[in-house]
Specification:
This protein is of the alpha+beta class. The chain has a domain of 322 residues. Helix content is 42%, strand content 14%. The N terminus is likely disordered.
């Protein structure tokens, strides 16, 4: 992989990835789809209905969406009858943990003026240059799984809202079940793939135009934290383990954690859309839902924007969140990489003859040095491969689907979006540099391990020859 360099060049014709201009005007005839919720037939569960909705005979019959099914079915194992749990108000204590932050609102600007004349689109330049409207029918609240279920039993349109943002922290199986039990039917296939990618620790960046639009990204990453004890993911989704010991601070306990940030924005036009943002804070990666709610800030952006200063354009919101989360992920990768460099530095001491000591070229009888090199290589390859997937996903996206975010008729909006894309590219440059460092370390430790292994294999033969020669000389 060392020779791989993404160019970011477009590989498709410019007219392939074009944003449909119909989304700029209200698609009122499509709003009925927002009110048509997913329903299970008498002979199936809601999980089966969700997974099989709009299925194809060409789908694998046994292993399709296995990770998703296993995750959702944990809700049944943990709660017995999840429908009773979700319908009970207030939600029973074992399932009353706050997992969701809701932000509902509607923007009437540009739809109807004081004289009653209807306007079919908004002037996005004025939104980008000044302060956009705060909106109407605003509701911001913290929800547990039961609250989410009861809230979504009616369409957001019935509540007077059109733009809905759901920030979900450490999605539990019963929270996932509450979500799929109350979504519009047309979103079933979209959220099926979204949650499958989320629970499977998959990297993905993409746009889809089918009925409406879907803007989606998944950014898996590894985070390094110093804790007194290991903080395991209670859902069993993410792995964690002890990091390489710091020889300068043997008493410090450092752990490596898997985490993922997943976002999907689904809508029928640029007025009526829903954003789903899933983050993981089981190891202390960011602020709590309670903090975001009390500070009245936008949670998917990590509090980078006040709630009363909302983003109304779905493509702008997607780029805004993607750029901020890419920066977060890059910083986490930088922390892990710098710590690795520090931990592995002692393997290079013999090159500079520090302390007048040299590293032994032979292993001990228990192959301790070989085992250490192998563990190090395994860690380096794990990190390197994960980083390669992230880099490649962005480069594929940049080579085609990024064209959905080209805007020519709104100059102020174009400059703002270009700044988000420039920020992502800057972080990608650093991620490529970190990937090269990991690859170089893999090569170095592979060579060290091969050298030690060769010497260990050759040493018995060499000793046998020396012994034989000595016997001949003595005899």
């Amino acid at each position: 992989m060392e020779g791989y360099h993404g160019s970011g060049r477009r590989h498709f014709k410019d007219d392939v990835f074009v944003w449909d201009k119909k989304f700029a005007v209200r698609q009122e005839n499509a709003y009925i789809a927002e009110r048509r919720l997913l329903k299970a037939e008498d002979n199936e569960t809601i999980i089966t209905a969700f997974i099989n909705q709009f299925g194809s005979w060409l789908d694998p019959p046994q292993y399709s969406y296995r990770a998703l099914r296993d995750f959702l079915e944990k809700a049944i194992d943990e709660s017995g009858n999840p429908e009773n749990i979700l319908n009970t108000d207030p939600t029973p204590a074992p399932h009353s943990r706050i997992l969701v932050l809701l932000d509902d609102r509607r923007d009437e600007t540009g739809w109807q003026d004081a004289g009653g004349a209807r306007h079919r689109a908004r002037d996005w330049n004025s939104y980008a240059e000044g302060y956009p409207p705060q909106g109407e029918s605003i509701e911001c609240s913290m929800l547990n799984a039961g609250d989410l279920y009861r809230k979504q039993l009616r369409s957001k349109l019935d509540h007077g809202a059109e733009r809905r943002i759901l920030y979900i922290c450490d999605m539990s199986p019963i929270c996932g079940l509450a979500l799929i039990s109350t979504i519009p039917q047309y979103q079933a296939t979209i959220l099926r793939d979204f949650i499958q990618r989320y629970v499977s620790y998959r990297v993905f960046i993409g746009v889809s135009l089918s009925f409406g639009f879907t803007l989606e990204f998944h950014l898996p990453y590894y985070a390094l934290r110093q804790h007194a004890i290991l903080r395991k993911d209670p859902r069993g989704l993410r792995r964690c383990g002890k990091f390489i010991t710091d020889r300068k601070r043997l008493e410090a306990l450092e752990f490596l954690y898997e985490a993922q940030i997943s976002v999907a924005i689904v809508g029928v036009d640029e007025w009526v859309w829903t954003a789903y943002c899933c983050t993981e804070t089981y190891f202390g990666s960011e602020e709590t839902i309670q903090y975001y709610h009390e500070q009245e800030v936008d949670a998917p952006s990590g509090g980078a924007r006040p709630r009363h200063f909302p983003v109304w354009n779905p493509r702008e919101y997607f780029l805004f969140i993607l750029s901020l989360r890419f920066r977060q992920v890059t910083r986490e990768w930088r922390n892990v990489s710098e710590a690795l460099e520090d931990r592995l530095q002692h393997h290079e001491e013999s090159v500079f003859n520090e302390g007048g000591e040299t590293t032994s070229l032979t292993d001990n009888p228990s192959f301790g040095l070989t085992k250490e090199y192998t563990r190090t290589i395994d860690l380096l390859r794990l990190l390197h491969n994960a980083l390669v997937k992230t880099i490649e996903s962005w480069e594929y996206f940049q080579g085609g689907e990024v064209q959905y975010f080209e805007v020519t008729e709104h100059e102020a909006l174009r400059k703002l979006w270009d700044s988000h894309l420039a920020g992502i590219n800057k972080n990608m440059t650093e991620l490529r540099s970190l990937r090269r460092m990991l690859y170089q370390r893999i090569e170095m430790f592979d060579n060290k391990r091969s050298g030690v292994s060769f010497l260990m294999l050759f040493l018995p033969v060499r000793l046998l020859i020396i012994t034989a020669c000595k016997c001949l000389a003595d005899g």
